[in-house]
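Please fill in the sequence for the structure shown.

STRUCTURE ENCODING:
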């Protein structure tokens, strides 16, 4: 496969062997009503690896690939994810203080791509996304990012809360961007090693994550519209960090 579908894998045995070999998958689609020993083995392994699955009509799978899919289509990322611990260790070698971006539930592919493009331009050294509830890194995301997703390190974690604890242990302050915050963006000190959290397009940063952050800030807005698009809001926050660090 190529083009927009170049990250698609199909077939029970190919997907099963790929998972056994440690291949990272974004998600797996099963045909409704699928049964059999190989299916159960794959389903169990996917649950163990915490890879999202979804059951769909056969027509959906047929629309994704022309090969014999046997009721299974998997999406593999177009990039190689990095290990968070290794990435953070490498940041200590840089002159600039670490700047990390966490995406809490950003599921729109174009927003994700736009955020990555802004992050690369702002000098973000690592993007962290959850393994569930995140936009896939597919051809459209990479195109929207202007290729940034092929260059900026991305870590995928099964637990965003644990990632925040780890970032704090490494000496980073964690700041959430939310319109519900009392503190204005410009009062935060981004010259310190920082991790910035932005949230889902509709609900923002989740309550469970907000409980863990060191500070929450909002962008002061004029007019009647209550909030910015998450991609635009992320750019505003990141470039305030750039401004302060200059």
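FILLED IN BY: designer on duty
SEQUENCE:
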């Amino acid at each position: 496969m190529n083009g927009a579908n170049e990250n698609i894998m199909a077939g029970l045995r190919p997907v099963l062997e790929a998972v056994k070999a440690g291949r990272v998958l974004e998600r797996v689609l099963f045909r409704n009503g699928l049964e059999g020993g190989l299916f159960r083995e794959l389903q169990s392994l996917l649950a163990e690896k915490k890879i999202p699955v979804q059951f769909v009509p056969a027509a959906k799978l047929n629309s994704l690939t022309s090969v014999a899919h046997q009721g299974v289509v998997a999406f593999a990322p177009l990039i190689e994810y990095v290990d968070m611990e290794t990435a953070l260790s490498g940041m200590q070698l840089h002159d600039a203080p670490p700047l990390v971006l966490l995406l809490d539930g950003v599921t729109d592919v174009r927003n994700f791509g736009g955020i990555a493009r802004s992050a690369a331009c702002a000098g973000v050294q690592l993007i962290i996304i959850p393994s569930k509830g995140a936009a896939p890194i597919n051809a459209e995301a990479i195109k929207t990012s202007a290729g940034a997703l092929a260059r900026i390190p991305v870590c995928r974690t099964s637990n965003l809360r644990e990632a925040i604890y780890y970032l704090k242990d490494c000496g980073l302050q964690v700041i959430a961007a939310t319109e519900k915050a009392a503190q204005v963006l410009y009062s935060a000190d981004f010259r310190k090693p920082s991790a910035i959290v932005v949230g889902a397009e509709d609900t923002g940063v989740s309550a469970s994550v907000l409980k863990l952050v060191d500070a929450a800030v909002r962008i002061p807005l004029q007019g009647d519209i209550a909030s910015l698009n998450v991609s635009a809001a992320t750019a505003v926050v990141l470039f305030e960090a750039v401004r302060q660090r200059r």
